[in-house]
Amino acid sequence: MTMTTWQAVATIAAVSLGTMLTRFLPFALFPDSRRPPRTVTYLGGVLPHAMTGLLVVYALKDVSPFSGFHGVPEAVAILTIVLLHRWRHSMLVSVAGGTIMYMVLVQLVFV
């Protein structure tokens, strides 16, 4: 199905407006001169950890210790992430290293 030119323009405009609104609205609601509400401060502290836990559960939901490679590539990748994070304290290095380790294991070792 193909969009007409006006449909494409309207879609791009709506997506641009939505993106700009979500980027600029927090600065309008919580300027530097005002402290954000305690709820917002609390959520800013706990949501990153909650999202990390959610991603771990989602990533491991289909791993079975009774079939395939018994979760060995996933366990090694998780161990790599933990060790890299304890060593460098960098989320980017940890996630990138764990992802690279997992892909190497799945593509080359556990074929």
UniProtKB/TrEMBL annotation:
<keyword id="KW-1133">Transmembrane helix</keyword>
<keyword id="KW-0472">Membrane</keyword>
<feature type="transmembrane region" description="Helical">
    <location>
        <begin position="66"/>
        <end position="84"/>
    </location>
</feature>
<feature type="transmembrane region" description="Helical">
    <location>
        <begin position="42"/>
        <end position="60"/>
    </location>
</feature>
<feature type="transmembrane region" description="Helical">
    <location>
        <begin position="91"/>
        <end position="110"/>
    </location>
</feature>
<dbReference type="InterPro" id="IPR008407">
    <property type="entry name" value="Brnchd-chn_aa_trnsp_AzlD"/>
</dbReference>
<protein>
    <submittedName>
        <fullName>Branched-chain amino acid permease</fullName>
    </submittedName>
</protein>
<keyword id="KW-0812">Transmembrane</keyword>
<feature type="transmembrane region" description="Helical">
    <location>
        <begin position="6"/>
        <end position="30"/>
    </location>
</feature>
<dbReference type="Pfam" id="PF05437">
    <property type="entry name" value="AzlD"/>
</dbReference>
